[in-house]
Amino acid sequence: MKVAVIGAGVAGLCAARHLSKENISFLVYEQNENIGGTWVYSDNTTEDEYGLPIHSSMYKNLRTNLPKEIMQFIGHEYHCEKSFITWTDVLTYLQSYADRYDLHKYIKFRHQVTQVSPLNNTWSLEVKNLKSGVIEKTHFDAIMVCNGSYSTPRYPAIPGMDDFQNTQMHSHQYRTNESFKNKKVVIVGSGPSGIDIAIDIASVAQEVYLSHHQKELLNSKFPENVKHKTDIALIKKDSVEFQDGSVERVDVILYCTGYIYHFPFLSNDCGITVDDNYVQPLYKHLFNINHPTMCFIGIPWKTLIFLLFELQVLSFISVIKGKTKLLSKSEMFDDLRNDIEIRKSNGEATRYYHRMGTTNMRSYIGNLTCIFKIDPLPEVIFKIYDKTTERRKESLLYYREDFYKIIDDYNFSFYNNQSVIGSDVDSNS
């Protein structure tokens, strides 16, 4: 068994750690010169020295929106005090993880996978050495796609976008708030990046208009110069007309509208399509049903990063090691259709089919641990996730000042400014 891992970010490093633990032969291909994927900050927002698009979407003032206590690999902890940490803390953590398990020796840096094709129950890869320009053709028994989901911007289709004569940009290009001083800015989208960037820009901008349709956000406290606006109806030469009929002259339109799943290296024979940002056909958002020796780590979103990735890695390894047998192809398709029907009946748009959230995440993780015989996550992880979600709604501007401490598998406490403000302790545990 020989496995190719595409990418040396969070998912790829986790794959490398567990493949090495199982003594499975593998190589990791990373087109950048460092580990860390999207957690590697760069002032450059366009192309690297080899003409490739900049992968990272990291901005300078980012702090995590999950506490570190629930975004770390099993058995490897952070060595920093705060719960909500900076991107530099995360990158340091990933470097310590790679050092601890001696993962660098498995990684081919500055190697870009340009094509993956199935070939007689194996996989044919074309890999370009970016420094020499040499393209190598090689073969593997299994493929783990770990190239990340936050590098290819998704733009909305809004009438008049081409008419706007001021600045338009995507959050992928956002690094600092300096260039927004005294400007009027429209933020399109109210996901985690939209909210964070709106708050970051508000400290220097004249006005920030947050364009969204999430009614629950109207009750959250924002800086005074952040104004809620409806979705955009029309973009003009130097202004924006919203669906409520109001018009604002603006200097910048900043699209915080997410990313698209992008796998330019997969041949059509791989049998994977992306339709309205839904990757299919995947069994459990993980296995390529058409070719189950290929998996995709990290497709689900709004979930427990790190821990969920680790469970996916362990699930795939369980199969390629022969510890767990997958369902038949037709049964996996049945399972996929059932998941699609449930999401349709809940009124979800196709582009949200990989979204987890509290309820779906619990069910999904429970399925993985049951099917692939993996130790379940302790209940305290889900409790902290739920509490963080609650605190984010209660105190959008200040929830990152909370400190969490895991007491045991069921209980935790949390603090703010070093004083206890709450806890979740089960007296029966």
Question: What features would you describe in this structure?
Answer:
With about 425 residues, the protein is of the alpha/beta class. The protein has 7 helices and 23 strands. The strands form 7 sheets. Strands 3-2-1-7-20 form a 5-stranded parallel beta sheet, covered by helices on one side. Strands 8-15-9-10-11 form a 5-stranded parallel beta sheet, with helices on one face. α1 (about 10-20) packs across α4 (about 305-320) and α4 (about 305-320) runs parallel beside α6 (about 355-370).
Using brief descriptors, characterize the structure shown.
5-stranded parallel sheet; 429 residues; 7 helices; alpha/beta; 23 strands
